[in-house]
Task: inverse folding
């Protein structure tokens, strides 16, 4: 198969739209008494369901290694305004190299696309999300009071939020990095969006979404907050973000949102049919493993654990239905290429969250 045909095949893969606010959280808001809370949540759930119907649940092709990058070392961004309608992409507002516009949502989206492109190119030598310079497109002001942002398999789409629980979704660079990384996964391991493989899909987006923000700010592991979507929650909401990689289960505890349900250990793995088998919930387990491995290795997370995780994602050996154990084993194998310190840190991290690595040698305890 030629590279051009292969790129076309990957580009046409249909996956479930991956939205940053999970359905279990929107379902909670949809039951709220206050109309300003439940009405936007109900509309968002209906729109998200329609998106899922339009796209098949699982991919039609197996995992493939990343294509050699033949793309540009410059981003190619376009941001459009849907003007509170649903038809994409909307009216073009800003293109690559053009100056700021009065619409701050457009500017935030433009900057977030650029930060993600720069991270993948400069930190991981990958040209855009497909490895071959794919243009990055985004649409803002999707419908009214839409409480989400998503990658639809072709572009980014941002809601403005309801103004009561959630604010403008373009304001969070890790959210933009998270959603665009669903595109990276689409072009590489193509992880099935269900159960543990779906949780790994969400986990990888959280990892690299967080690293996009850390890289842009030049943060060390100690300086990073390890939160996903910390800019989204409006004043008065009892919480700091949608998720915490450092301490899963602690991101929010609010009368409207409920209590953050993410586990940090396999002992607390959530068995559920909701959310495609809890993909946004159980991703807390590998998220915490990554945080622990990165902390053990120190300095900048993208140079240590981030590189190991990226190697696995783009290796071409990760099955589309991979579970936590098979993914963990591949990260240990990938860490071998960097040295015993890296291997030991990764082993310790998976051991700490209760994910077995089967016959692999156990970490050395100090």
Result:
């Amino acid at each position: 198969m030629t590279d051009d045909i292969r790129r076309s095949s990957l580009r046409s893969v249909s996956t479930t739209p991956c939205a940053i606010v999970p359905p279990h959280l929107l379902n909670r808001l949809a039951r709220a008494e206050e109309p300003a809370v439940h009405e936007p949540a109900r509309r968002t759930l209906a729109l998200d369901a329609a998106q899922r119907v339009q796209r098949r649940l699982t991919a039609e092709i197996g995992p493939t290694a990343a294509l050699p990058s033949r793309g540009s070392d410059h981003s190619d961004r376009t941001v459009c305004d849907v003007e509170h309608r649903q038809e994409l992409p909307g009216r073009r507002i800003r293109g690559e190299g053009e100056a700021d516009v009065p619409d701050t949502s457009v500017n935030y989206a433009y900057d977030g696309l650029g930060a993600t492109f720069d991270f993948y190119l400069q930190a991981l030598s990958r040209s855009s999300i497909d490895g071959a310079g794919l243009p990055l497109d985004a649409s803002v002001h999707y419908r009214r009071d839409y409480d989400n942002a998503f990658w639809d398999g072709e572009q980014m789409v941002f809601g403005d939020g309801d103004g009561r629980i959630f604010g403008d979704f373009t304001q969070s660079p890790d959210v933009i990095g998270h959603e665009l990384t669903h595109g990276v996964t689409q072009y590489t391991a193509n992880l099935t969006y269900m159960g543990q493989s779906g949780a790994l899909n969400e986990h990888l987006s959280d990892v690299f979404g967080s690293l996009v923000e850390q890289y842009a700010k030049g943060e060390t592991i100690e300086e990073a907050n390890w939160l996903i979507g910390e800019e989204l929650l409006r004043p008065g909401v009892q919480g700091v973000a949608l998720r915490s990689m450092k301490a899963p289960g602690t991101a929010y505890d609010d009368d409207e949102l409920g209590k953050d349900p993410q586990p940090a250990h396999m002992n607390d793995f959530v068995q559920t049919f909701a959310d495609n088998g809890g993909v946004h919930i159980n991703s807390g387990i590998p998220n915490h493993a990554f945080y622990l491995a990165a902390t053990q290795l120190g300095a900048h997370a993208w140079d240590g654990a981030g590189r190991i995780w990226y190697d696995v994602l783009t290796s071409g050996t990760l099955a589309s239905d991979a579970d936590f154990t098979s993914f963990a084993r591949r990260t240990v194998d990938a860490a071998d290429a960097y040295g015993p310190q890296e291997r030991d840190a990764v082993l310790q991290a998976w051991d700490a969250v209760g994910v077995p690595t089967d016959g692999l040698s156990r970490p050395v305890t100090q």
